[in-house]
Amino acid sequence: MVLASFLCFASAGAVTLADYRHRVSEAILIIDQLQAASDHADLSSSERMNSSVARIREELPVRETVTLGSQSVFVDNTWLHEALQNYEKTNNSKLQRVEALARIEERLRALDERLDEVQRRKSAASDKDSDKGRLAEILRRPDFNGPATPEDSALSRLWERFLRWLFSLFPNVKPVTPGGSSFISGLAQIIIVLACLAAIAFLIWKFGPRYLSHRRRKKKPKREARIVLGERLEPDQTSADLLAQAELLARNGDLRAAIRKAYIALLCELGDRKVVSLAQHKTNRDYLNSVRERTTLYNSMRKLTSSFELHWYGFQPAAESDWHEFRSGYQQALKAGSGG
Predict the structure, then answer these.
(1) Could you read off the pLDDT tens digit of each residue along the chain, which spans 340 residues?
(2) Fewer CB in 10 Å around end: N or C, the chain?
(3) Residue 334 CB neighbour total at 10 angstroms
């Protein structure tokens, strides 16, 4: 919401900068009274709350004109009225009501400080156009042109509550104005960061050793023996071991058994890669159908499955060329399985 939308020449009903700043201060005082009632768990009645909100709206109407010499600045206080509406909607939640008041007060105090800056400069200089430009620039700043940064607002509210509690212990000490000291704001950030670091260090000291000892005790589950197409695979047996056995069978002339062993090696490798799920009850067709959506792998594996079925289940003798063709198809299937 743009708070200073445009500049114009003086018009009827305009107020002075001093009067506008005085009414901003009055609105802050009313907010403080509402906050004090909330902090002491002595919440205002609905009638009192409505009366206070009405006074703020009266002090700072939605739109008005602030004069600077012979010229004026058009001010839009829509943000304040919207914030008051949100505050009125939080009647059933004390926490939300307190947070809403803190956000309103924070922005009003920031505005009051900037107006004080302009007023002091105005007293020291006679350049009316420059004063007008400063006021317009201030009212256009992000502080009065949208919601405050959540992190900053939360930090300010937390520090403000702490100060109120602290100074309540010393009735004669004047409370520190929230946002009035950059030193206090920086100190608050340092205290909160140190508190967070201390909490993290405590958690690491308290639960770190227990977590590490638990991790040490936790062992990787040992892989059990598997049965693939009726053949038992030992827990430490790999697809490379099976393929080496197939090569040995082929050199000894048992090409039919070599094709079977190489086909099981392929299933074992795909199982280790989580491409297929090995199970004792599954057939070669079950494994083939499980990769149907992976077109390249499916086409390669279908040729190997047909060769396996032809020579093992069909008892058709295998020649050297059949073995070499199967061996080549095995490598293509592994590449297809790696490519997803």
Answers:
(1) 333 333 333 344 578 888 888 888 888 888 888 877 765 554 446 777 788 888 888 888 988 888 866 667 778 888 888 888 888 887 666 777 778 888 888 888 888 887 787 777 766 655 555 555 666 666 655 555 544 444 445 666 766 776 666 566 555 544 444 444 566 666 777 787 788 788 888 888 877 777 776 666 555 566 788 898 888 888 888 889 999 999 999 999 999 999 999 999 999 999 889 999 999 899 989 999 999 999 999 998 999 999 988 888 887 888 999 999 999 999 998 888 776 5
(2) C
(3) 18
Two tokens at 303?
């040729």
